[in-house]
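Input chain follows. Return structure tokens only.
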Amino acid sequence: MRKLNSTGKTALSGIAAALSVTALMLCGYTYPRLQFILPLCAGMVIYTLSLIVGKRYALGAYIASSMLAMILCAFKAPVFYYVLFFGYYPLLKDFITEKLPGRTAAFICRIVLFNCIGAFAVFIVGAVLSVNILEIQIFGWKFPVVLAAVALNVEFVIYDLMIFFYRNKLTDLQIGNKL
């Protein structure tokens, strides 16, 4: 694979942003129960872009896809999840892992970050979309906030491990110029 010049990197960033917006638009038009999975997939597109062309271009694609999704998507809850967490977390995970000494400290920092951003996201979604935040509905089942927080923390740990294994798989395949 040859090195991309800045025009190629910009074009690839635009394609990644378009794929992310398309994934977010699918939430409202096809199957609304994918409101947690599709923002995650859109964030992984941005993460793959960061591994191929660099974090600067990935951050630009994240900002562009966030703004376009806020304008174009009819179903706003997955867009909020993407903007507030799933879009930039894989980029932030690498930064936290590189800067903090030890795996345990980095993991605790990521858990605390997730809970702070999750509480903020639930508050924003509740305030903007007038959703009852005392009782959260996940996949059609209603949960009190405490049980939902525990379930979401378990899902976060699985998501964090998925990013780890995804990066290792891309490293094995030698995709990207930074690996």
